[in-house]
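Following up on my earlier thread - several people asked me to post the actual chain instead of describing it. Fair enough. Here it is, all 534 residues.
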Amino acid sequence: MKRRMREVPAAVRRAAAAVGGLLCAMAVAALAVTDGTGRVATPPADDVHAVPVAAVETGLVCPMPAELEQPDVGDDEFSATPVDTTTSLTGAVLDGAEDTEPSLTTLDGALAGDLTGPLETGGVAAVREGPVSGARTLRVTPGGGTFATGTVASVTTDGDLRGMAAGPCAAPAVEHWLVGGGTAVGSSGRLVLQNPGRTPATVTLEAWGASGPVVLGSQSLVVVPPGEQVVTMLEAIAPDQSRLALHVTAEGGRVGAYVQHHRIEGLVPAGTDLVVGGGAPAATTAVSGVLSTGEAVDDPHAPRLDLLAPGDRAGTAALAVLGPEGPVRLRGGEEVALEPGQVTTLPLGGLPAGSYTVVVDADVPVVAGAAVDRKGTAADDAVIDDDPYDRAWLAGQAVPSTGILTDGAAAVPADVAYGVTLSGVPDERDPDRVEDVEGAAVVELRGIGPDGEEAWTRTVEVPTGQTVEVTWAELSELGDTVAVVAEQSADEPGVVWSVRLADADDTSLFSVLAPTAPLAVGGDVTVRRVDATG
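Reply from S.P.:
Thanks for posting it. Predicted structure:
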């Protein structure tokens, strides 16, 4: 018999400890008083209390089905949408707390569907819904070791929207950084703001382009009513931008945020995908899942990396490109000049064919994203016989170091080919020394079936400084999979990873997902009474 999920993964123990430490710090700060000189008084060592904090329900907000806002011309031969878009939602809750019943709801909290399968301690509840008609929220109360993950994937096989637009169900937040998309001629971006809460959220938008900050004027403030979403066409508020980075901040509530982006080159489709939130500005960030087919340096469809230093200081960045054979020197990547408030694009052409992770180290905080194109084949009855492309937007991730786990999960839609890309990130990334880095991390990959059982398991050794790809050819015979889980030991080098999805019938339609981290759980918070009378 296939074994069920382990009771408490190492990553969840780490997540619980991290959350407990954070809450502890917050509690101490809340109780601390100064001694009149501005200094915080020292708390008595024996006046310590543990206060239990229960886990609260978490809702992961899922993207809407992809759609094209364009009037019908009345003639199917010249229609921008000659075929329907097929959208599915796949969600899974793994290692849920006992007696927890996760649910699938609309944004306003109305029940939209049950998750199938028993959710016992060590079990899985999963759902596959299609076609999806609106936004969904995956709701669950974290227990002792909970992964919750969801993916919405829209596939359009022809027309302006041709491509796979896929994105994760993500926790709403007060801040999002979206790097990617554009509003130049032939490009369109739909910024979607979703409010699953019970109070209105006032959202402030900031935008940057190739020339610096983009003035949004009165359009920089958006009120999102509770249980609703607001769509803003970016070409209307930030026109003629060849590249974009957005900062979304919310007051009064937490929101979900993403951009649906599509492009056409003349009359030929050039890709559709979702630009989703990535890591906050940091000195180091990584982009996993960059796919090269051996494009030339000057190929306009070669992969590209977008960087933004959103502060007011100029800086420099260095790139470590981790490939199948180890670090690869990228011409021009040893020192990249960063102008404050300008989106800098670095072409990644000239790389040998394969999968890569790009690690960015900068002397100022940066955010990053990447674009990857894949060539398709023109339809036999196409008016123009130029080959179309699809585009995937990749979000920057936090970079782990030795001893920092990168456990996570990603939901896998039905009828897709998928593969897993893993890269061992060296702590030493100096271009003159990174090639000498040694060591490896061992990652356990597990595929979870719709019945809550492990469909397969695979142990992958990831050498430090290299990128390892577990391909669809290797996974296709292992059974139906609703989610992929990756876990590693705490004392090993850090690993970043991603999942690449492709339509099973036309693999040129593709997207890349970053994993969803384990949910934080409740626990005891330590508080101390501060004596400020001395």
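Confidence is low (pLDDT under 50) at residues 1-45, 118-122. That should answer part of your original question.
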